[in-house]
Amino acid sequence: MNEIIIAADGLSKSYDGKPALRSLRLEVPRGSICGFLGRNGAGKTTTLKLLLGMLRRDAGSIRLFGEPIDSEASSIAARRRVGFVSEDKELYPFMTVDQTIRFTRPFFPGWRRDLEEKYLDLFQLPRKKAVPKLSKGMRTQLMLVLAMARGAELLLMDEPTGGLDPAMTEDVLQILADLAASDGTTIFFSSHQLAEVEQICDRVCIIDQGQVVIDGVLDDLKSEYRRILLVFDGTPPRELADLAGVDHLRCRGRTASLLAHGDVDGLVDRARELGPSSVEVRPVTLKELFLDHVRGE
Amino acid sequence: MLWYKAWLETKWRFVFLVGSILFVWLTPEWITATGVHSGVPAARLWMAIQLGSVFLFIFTAIFLAGSGINTQGAYTFTPGFHGSMLFTLSLPVSRRRLLFVRAGLGALLTILLIAIMAGYILHLRPEATSALQALAYFTRVIACTMAVYALSVLMACVLDEMWQFTGAFIFWTALFLVQSKFDWVARVSPLRGMSLNCYPVTAPIPWAPIVASLVFAGVLLCASVLVVQRKEY
């Protein structure tokens, strides 16, 4: 069985009494690339901050690399093995690219000079340029260099491709996929770009209102879920909502659209008993899975 | 490397302060050389220098203070949330160490500048100053300045730069006003402790403001450690 690198259980956090995370449960195995999806304010950044010890949890537990994170010392030990890219990609304005790298390097015993050179060349980052003079895309690239060259076993990234042009986004996604494949690096990243998640992730975790609504291997989810389109002569019957295996039901006019999982064939048979004039079953995309679960229809 | 970061963070402030001090140094020399002060009594000029020095001591301490985590003014970015703080906190370093290194470097630079300024003030003093008198003056000025410094460190733990400066100036202005109304405040006030008007070089060592300042600074630094360790970013 794969070693679990990130394990969170019953994780709860609220701000001024308003819940941001509600008993969140999460498991990410070693070497996987897990896309962390959710709407704005769903709790993605809060989760990442809790994993890094920037926030204190109200309840629940966190284990990184199999070790409980229950003190500052354990958090520091874990952070030695973690690379982080924050959402707004801000670095020290009083440093140049070179100074930022020189500053970061000694904190990480496993720093990879070869990767540092490789990515600096790839991104063509000007070493002498001051951080405030970098474009947002360049700051993103510098943060990626800092995160990837430290020889981290786990990369936590909050929208890592934000600010990058499509060509550079493609390069970065390829680098991340290579890191996971060649070095066994575990990558956990939040994103609003479903296409890039679908492109490189083997797992997805969808969070909504502080709770995980879908978590699993992407291919399994895609084969497990199906879209069933039913067209009726009149208004779709209310009984559709009560059918076992229906995750979400959306009715428009005479058409009912069901997102279903599990025994889809059995569900289709039961739906046929309700007298639709036509039935169509088709595979789902990640976008459909995401939208159906976070819209809560 | 945290010392390196702290130095890069403070070096331009340090350079600015050195420039300010040079300006203040050169002004009396220029006044003397040009004879502009001919109508101004020497005693009044000396008093102005002493009052100005107290302001410079306070300004230096406030300007060089920092907590090591809130490294950028949040007002230039999204309020309350900006990435360099998150980058710092993602490093495998304790928050206490981040605070100690930044506050430590700021304190060393403050002490250096205060000692230079205090030395120059004694040099300007019309009468000769003995080594013991000079040592006593250095000690009390540095002790009292540490109270100002510690308050700014605490403020740097919870406020962005703009409010850190504003808050500190409001506090010390308020103390300046309060100490003129309440005698017991005046007796322990660091502002009076660092002033040669209130305690001339020849006066006995004013232990009350020295001890009060050191206790105040100690308490505030302990509070800073607690705040930094408990604060959520």
Q: How would you summarize this macromolecular structure in one to three sentences?
A:
The complex is a heterodimer of chains A (297) and B (233). With 297 residues, chain A is of the alpha/beta class.
List the keywords.
heterodimer; A: 297 residues; alpha/beta; Rossmann fold; Alpha-Beta Plaits; 4-stranded antiparallel β-sheet; B: 233 residues; mainly alpha; 9 helices
Descriptive account of the structure:
The complex is a heterodimer of chains A (297) and B (233). Chain A is of the alpha/beta class and 297 residues long. Chain A has 2 domains: 4-209, P-loop containing nucleotide triphosphate hydrolases (Rossmann fold); 222-294, Alpha-Beta Plaits, CATH 3.30.70. Chain A is built from 10 helices and 14 strands. A 6-stranded mixed sheet of chain A has the order 6-7-8-3-9-10, sandwiched between helices. A 4-stranded antiparallel sheet of chain A has the order 2-1-4-5, with helices on one face. Chain A has a 4-stranded antiparallel sheet with strand order 12-13-11-14, sandwiched between helices. The longest helix of chain A has 18 residues, at 166-183. Chain B has one domain (2-230). Chain B has helices at residues 2-34, 42-64, 83-90, 95-124, 131-158, 161-179, 183-188, 190-193, 207-230. The interface between A and B is medium-sized, with 32 and 27 residues.
Structural topology:
The complex is a heterodimer of chains A (297) and B (233).
Chain A: E1 4-15, E2 18-29, E3 33-38, H1 44-51, E4 59-64, E5 67-68, H2 72-79, E6 82-85, H3 97-104, H4 113-123, H5 136-148, E7 154-158, H6 166-183, E8 186-190, H7 194-200, E9 203-208, E10 211-217, H8 218-224, E11 225-231, E12 246-252, E13 255-261, H9 264-272, E14 278-283, H10 286-295
Parallel strand pairs in A: 3-8, 3-9, 6-7, 7-8
Antiparallel strand pairs in A: 1-2, 1-4, 4-5, 9-10, 11-13, 11-14, 12-13
Helix pairs in contact in A: 4-5
Chain B: H1 2-34, H2 42-64, H3 83-90, H4 95-124, H5 131-158, H6 161-179, H7 183-188, H8 190-193, H9 207-230
